[in-house]
């Protein structure tokens, strides 16, 4: 039997559809009944509503060990999709609790219950830091703790360290590092926030690059890697490296709205994150832009996907193959 953590999230819900289409028996970890309704919508989107009732739902939390122990009974394979995504500095403790401690709990249960293989969903945010002369990020580039990283990136990197610990203790593992994931079913969350900003009339763009990927590609790679003999490896999953300007203009065309027309310089974004910090302190409001996100918005690096392409002979979808369906729904 297969266990999916984070089953009510974007990757987890689309993964459930794929697993059940392959006649797998699946347990899905959830925290709130309200979120299950979103999963049902994802199944409807794929015209697979009939498969929804085959899910074995287990209420629990990766930070709650007793509930995990119940979920792990009779489990042979685990897809660990659960994580907290936030770029708000005040969420640092919650990020560490969920992403690092939660992953450590999952790894420990995998070892204790004799799980055959674990797939951990990480992020490109946890990949290494290229040196000054490097513009291409591969799985082999080393993490530099002296560089500026968001708390999210730091905790996803810390989560990977827990997975590698499990591998050293004999657990078969793979790690996938997806870019910004786009897919149906989670309005006003994750990547859809970007779509909504453009829909509302976002004015500014920066000169940086972004790595994007369809949720279909993420789940396909996860499934193929778990069925393979590959273990102890991580894989960058980016369907397309694109400038923020080009991505914003493409989304705006699909939405039939005016694209952002003003380029924000590094000086402008530096001023913006400092001002945002001051305002957040005065009125106790969550941050919209931080030092780390401002820096990332100007990055011109690209993500190298040759490893996953060579390993699986895989071809990624281009944005034209899936974005219109997301926008329409």
TrEMBL record:
Instruction: List, alphabetically, the InterPro entries matched.
Output: Epimerase_deHydtase, NAD(P)-bd_dom_sf, NAD(P)-dependent_oxidoreduct
Q: What is this protein called?
A: Nucleoside-diphosphate-sugar epimerase
What are this entry's molecular-function GO terms? aldehyde dehydrogenase (NAD+) activity
Using the record's annotation, list all stretches that form the NAD-dependent epimerase/dehydratase domain: 2-200
GO CC field: cytoplasm
Matching entries from SUPFAM superfamilies are given as: NAD(P)-binding Rossmann-fold domains (SSF51735)
């Amino acid at each position: 039997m297969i266990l999916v953590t984070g089953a009510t999230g974007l990757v987890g819900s689309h993964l459930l559809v794929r697993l059940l289409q392959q006649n797998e028996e699946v347990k899905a970890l959830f925290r709130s009944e309200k979120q299950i309704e979103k999963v049902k919508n994802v199944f409807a989107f794929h015209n697979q509503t009939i498969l929804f009732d085959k899910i074995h739902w287990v209420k629990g939390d990766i930070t709650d060990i007793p509930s995990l122990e119940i979920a792990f009974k009779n489990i042979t394979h685990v897809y660990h999709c659960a994580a907290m995504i936030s770029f708000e500095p005040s969420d640092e403790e919650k990020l560490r609790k969920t992403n690092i401690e939660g992953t450590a709990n999952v790894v420990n249960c995998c070892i204790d219950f004799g799980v055959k293989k674990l797939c951990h969903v990480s992020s490109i945010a946890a990949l290494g830091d290229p040196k000054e002369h490097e513009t291409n990020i591969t799985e082999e580039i080393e993490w530099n703790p002296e560089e500026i990283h968001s708390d999210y990136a730091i905790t996803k990197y810390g989560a990977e360290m827990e997975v590698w610990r499990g591998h050293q203790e004999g657990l078969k593992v793979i790690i996938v590092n997806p870019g910004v994931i786009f897919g149906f079913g989670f309005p006003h969350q994750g990547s859809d926030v970007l779509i909504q900003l453009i829909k509302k009339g976002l004015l500014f763009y920066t000169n940086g690059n972004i790595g994007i990927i369809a949720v279909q590609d993420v789940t396909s790679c996860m499934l193929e890697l778990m069925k393979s003999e590959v273990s102890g490896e991580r894989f960058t999953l980016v369907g397309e490296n694109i400038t923020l300007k080009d991505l914003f203009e493409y989304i705006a065309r699909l939405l039939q709205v005016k694209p952002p027309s003003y380029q924000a310089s590094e000086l402008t974004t530096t001023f913006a994150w400092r001002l945002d910090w001051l305002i957040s302190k005065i009125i106790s409001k969550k941050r919209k832009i931080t030092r780390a996100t401002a820096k990332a918005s100007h990055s011109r690096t690209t993500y190298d996907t040759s490893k996953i392409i060579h390993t699986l002979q895989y071809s990624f979808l281009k944005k034209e193959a899936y974005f219109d369906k997301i926008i329409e729904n």
